[in-house]
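Q: How would the structure tokens look for this protein?
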Amino acid sequence: MKTVLLVEDDVVQRRLIAFALRPLGLSLREAASAEEASPLLGGIDLLITDHTMPGRTGLELVTELRALGANPPVPAILLTGRGEPSIADEAHALGACELVSKPFSPSALGARVRELVAL
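A: Here is the predicted structure in token form.
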């Protein structure tokens, strides 16, 4: 069973995403902040994280994930309500394989998750 870590500070968004992912048969770990997510990074197959959260950002969490040195690297999806090109550039430079702008289709996110974890 593939394990996905979902990091989203907005509880409604987190529940919506979790609801969309549950039918995929994944083991889903959830966290409300990067700080809460840090100890959960080991052994995951995919990271989905919000960009802007209180405390550390999703980009900082992706950087921490990359520092763990998994080979091949664990894919990361960055969710953002800010469509600035600089965020996309920074996200890709740090190894986020996907940048998803809010609002997004939960079913489209589920389809992308299915592809990234090869379900």
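Residues 11-21 form the longest helix (11 residues).

The CA atoms of residues 88 and 99 lie 6 Å apart.

Upvote if useful.
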